[in-house]
Specification:
The structure is a single chain. This protein is of the alpha/beta class. Strands 2-1-3-4-5-6 form a 6-stranded parallel sheet, sandwiched between helices. The N and C termini lie far apart (43 Å).
Length: 247
């Protein structure tokens, strides 16, 4: 019965989620050329752990602004990497841009908060020795750590594999190289919607803190205030696990 209900809901969930994504992209296009978002700190009794936002592919620095504003209201200094642009570069290129910004802004002890592809960039950053103490952990929402089979046989076409979308092919070299690095997974919290049309296999990451959210959809999930609360909780949990703050 549950499977039947899920099948009936599927086209509506897809339509709602893609509409949400389209509206968010329109808002980002309107903001093109504006200065990167700046987040005002709110009063808070919690540890002021810095946060660095890492959006997904084709998501500008404004895409995660609502989540960033929420975290700032809780007392967390929030930073963006505006040089990621629309985030269509390779993982290695993205890491270079992030390292430069983290150094320029003199960030220490931060937790990466990411959506989708941003989680892959965050994991690659945690593996980079140049990171130093700039960041300590990653909280990723709807990240395809094992890639995605959404494209089916079309993903195998050379034309597709040589586009930015090729990164998500399960046998992509950059993706499999990241997957082989398992020790760092203990510093990652992977928050996954219960159903994600963009990642049929889900976002489970062996050795990480894996959480299944009561949300449906790859894009709507990141704009749900209930998810923001979970992100906030896990920013602190990951800082505790790494010893950055005391329990």
């Amino acid at each position: 019965m549950r499977r039947l209900t899920s099948l009936i809901r599927w086209p509506f969930d897809v339509a709602l989620d893609l509409t949400h994504a389209a509206l968010a992209q329109l808002a980002a296009l309107r903001a093109r050329g504006d200065s990167p978002p700046v987040f005002a700190l709110g009063p808070s009794d919690c540890a002021p752990i810095p946060v660095v936002l890492l959006p997904g592919i084709l998501e500008s620095s404004t895409y995660l602004a609502p989540l960033g504003g929420f975290l700032a209201s809780k007392g967390h200094p929030v930073h963006v990497v505006d040089t990621l642009g629309w985030n269509i570069s390779t993982i290695d290129e993205s890491v270079e841009r992030c390292i430069a910004v983290l150094s320029e802004q003199d960030i220490h002890g931060a937790v990466f908060v990411a959506h989708s592809k941003g989680g892959l960039i965050g994991k690659a950053l945690l593996l980079d020795p140049r990171l130093g103490d700039a960041a300590i952990a990653l909280v990723a929402v709807a990240t395809p750590f094992a890639g995605s089979t959404l494209g089916g046989p079309f993903q195998r076409l050379p034309l597709v594999q040589h586009t930015p979308l090729g990164l998500f092919f399960p046998t992509n070299q950059a993706l499999t190289r990241l997957a082989e690095e398992r020790d760092v997974n203990t510093r990652i919290a992977s928050l996954a919607p219960e159903w994600d049309q963009m990642i049929p296999g889900g976002s489970h990451l062996d050795g990480a803190t894996n959480v299944t959210l009561e949300n449906r959809g790859h894009f709507r999930t990141i704009d749900d205030p209930r998810v923001w609360e979970q992100v906030h909780i896990h920013v602190h949990k990951m800082a505790e696990l790494t010893g950055e703050i005391q329990r």
